[in-house]
Design a protein that fits this description.
(S)-3-amino-2-methylpropionate transaminase, about 425 residues, EC 2.6.1.22, alpha/beta, Aspartate Aminotransferase, domain 1, globular
Length: about 425
C-alpha cells in the first residue's frame, strides 16, 4: 500500500534517490486526486490541466463511466492473456475500432500497450505484407523511444542523443512547414515545392520499390503541432498507392476527437492503409492499436505478433467506455469550441507580447511559437513560460524541434470555469516571461 503520510519533500527525495534523472518531470508536485481537468496535489494545491498527460486524457481524469467500467472488469479478471485464452473486451474493441476508423474496406485490429509498440508493429506488418525493408518517416516526426522508433524520430536531444546505433533502412522525408515558407512563394507554390521535394526524396535517398511503408503524423505532435496542407497529405498517399507502399497514419496524439474529428485523417479526406492509435484510447490506461486493411493486417502467421500484456482487459473496457463518451458528450464539437477559445486568447496575448509567433490549431490541438526580437526560436523564454505555469497552478507543456512551442492538450471535458481559470494563469505566465 502507498504511504500517504509522506510529505511532498519526502517523496521528492525518494524520487531523486530511486528513480533515474533520465525520466524527466515538468512538474515535481505529487498528485493526490484528479477529476475532469483539475488535479489536486498531496498538500491541497490545485492544478488546471492543459497537458492531459501529453494528450492521453481527452475524456479527462477519472471519468465516472471509465472508472465504473474498470472496477467492474477488475472483479471479473485482471489479465488472462489474450494469446492464452480469449476474452470479450478485446474482440469487441477490435470490432469497434474497425468500425469507427476511416476506410470503407474490410479491416482488422490488433492491440498493444504503447504508442511506440503500435508503430513498431505497424512497420512489422507492412514489412511482412510487402516483403520490403525500408521505412520512411518525416522531418520533425516523433514516433517513440524504442530503437526502431528513435530512428524514425527527428529530434536528436533528448530523444536520440548517445542512444545509437539505430535501426537501419529508416529514412526521413521532407515535410512542409507553412509558417516557415519563403516569403516570395505563395501558399500554392510552396505546396507544389513540398510535393516535388517529397517525390525527389525517392530519387536521392531511397528507391520506392524498396520501401515497405511511409509513416506520417497527420499533425506533427512533438514536432510542434505542424499542420500540413491537405493536398500534400493526399499526394503522399497517392504516391504510396502508385508504388505499392503501405501508408500508415500515426494518430497516437491526434486521435479520439483531439482535432475536432474522431481522427485527424478525416480532415484530409484520406483513408490510411494502417493507423496507429494510443494515448487517449483508454483514458490513461496503457493500450495501443494497429488498425487497417484486412489483407495487410492478416499477412503475418500465428505467433508473429502480440505481447504478454497486449490488450489488457481493464484497458479494453476503458477504451470501449471512452468511445461511448466521445459520442455521448459530443467531444468533437467540444474540441472545436475549446480550440477557438484558446486561439482567441493567444491572439490577444500576441497583441500584447512581441515574442508570440505563429499560432496554429486543428480543433483543440493548439500551439504557439515563441520567438526572439529577430524572429528566431526562443527556447529560454518558452521554458520560462511553462516553468511559471507549472509553479503556479497550470500543467503546461512545450514542444518543437527547437523547443520554442507552447502546446495545449487539455482534456476535452474541461469546464468553462476550469478553462477560464487556466487561461488566467497562462496570461500571468506570458506577462512574467515578458519582464
Amino acid at each position: 500500500m502507498t504511504d500517504q503520510t509522506l510529505t511532498k519533500d519526502d517523496l521528492q527525495e525518494k524520487r531523486k534517490k530511486y528513480i533515474p534523472k533520465g525520466l524527466g518531470n515538468g512538474n515535481t508536485n505529487i498528485a493526490d486526486y484528479a477529476k475532469g481537468a483539475t488535479v489536486i496535489d498531496n498538500e491541497g494545491g490545485k492544478w488546471i490541466d492543459f497537458a492531459g498527460a501529453i494528450g492521453t486524457l481527452n475524456v479527462g481524469h477519472t471519468h465516472p463511466k471509465v472508472t465504473e467500467a474498470v472496477k467492474k472488469q477488475a472483479d471479473r479478471y485482471l489479465h488472462p492473456g489474450f494469446n492464452v485464452i480469449m476474452y470479450d473486451s478485446y474482440i469487441n474493441l477490435a470490432e469497434k475500432l474497425c468500425t469507427i476508423t476511416p476506410g470503407s474496406f474490410d479491416k482488422m485490429a490488433i492491440l498493444f500497450n504503447s504508442g511506440a509498440e503500435a508503430v513498431e508493429n505497424a512497420v512489422k506488418i507492412a514489412r511482412k505484407y510487402t516483403s520490403r525493408q525500408a521505412v520512411v518517416s518525416f522531418e520533425r516526426a516523433f514516433h517513440g523511444r524504442t530503437n526502431l522508433t528513435m530512428g524514425m524520430t527527428s529530434k536528436v536531444k533528448p530523444y536520440k542523443f548517445n542512444f545509437g546505433p539505430y535501426s537501419p533502412e529508416v529514412y526521413q522525408a521532407p515535410f512542409p512547414y507553412m509558417s516557415n515558407k519563403p516569403e516570395q512563394m505563395t501558399d500554392e507554390e510552396y505546396i507544389d515545392f513540398s510535393i516535388d521535394r517529397f517525390k525527389d526524396f525517392f530519387v536521392t535517398s531511397v528507391a520506392p520499390e524498396t520501401v515497405a511503408c511511409v509513416v506520417m503524423e497527420p499533425v506533427q505532435g512533438e514536432g510542434g503541432f505542424i499542420i500540413p496542407p491537405k493536398r500534400f497529405v493526399q499526394e503522399v498517399q497517392q504516391f504510396c498507392r502508385e508504388h505499392g507502399i503501405v501508408f500508415v497514419a500515426d494518430e497516437i496524439q491526434t486521435g479520439f476527437a483531439r482535432t475536432g474529428k474522431l481522427f485527424a485523417s478525416e480532415h484530409f479526406d484520406i483513408e490510411p492503409d494502417l493507423m496507429t492509435l494510443s494515448k487517449s484510447l483508454a483514458a490513461g490506461l496503457p493500450l495501443s492499436a494497429v488498425v487497417g486493411k484486412a489483407e495487410i493486417m492478416d499477412a503475418s502467421s500465428p505467433g508473429e505478433l502480440g505481447g504478454t500484456y497486449a490488450g489488457n482487459p481493464l484497458a479494453c473496457e476503458a477504451a470501449l467506455a471512452v468511445i461511448d463518451i466521445i459520442e455521448e458528450e459530443n467531444l468533437n464539437d467540444k474540441a472545436e469550441q475549446i480550440g477557438a477559445v484558446l486561439e482567441e486568447k493567444l491572439m490577444e496575448l500576441k497583441d500584447r507580447h512581441h515574442f508570440l509567433g505563429n499560432i496554429r490549431r486543428l480543433g483543440a490541438m493548439v500551439a504557439v511559437e515563441i520567438n526572439d526580437a529577430e524572429g528566431n526560436p526562443d527556447k529560454i523564454r518558452t521554458a520560462a513560460i511553462t516553468s511559471y505555469a507549472n509553479n503556479n497552478g497550470l500543467l503546461l507543456l512545450s514542444a518543437g524541434v527547437k523547443g520554442n512551442v507552447v502546446r495545449f492538450l487539455s482534456p476535452l471535458v474541461i469546464t468553462d470555469e476550469e478553462l477560464k481559470e487556466g487561461l488566467a494563469i497562462l496570461d500571468k505566465a506570458f506577462a512574467a516571461a515578458a519582464d
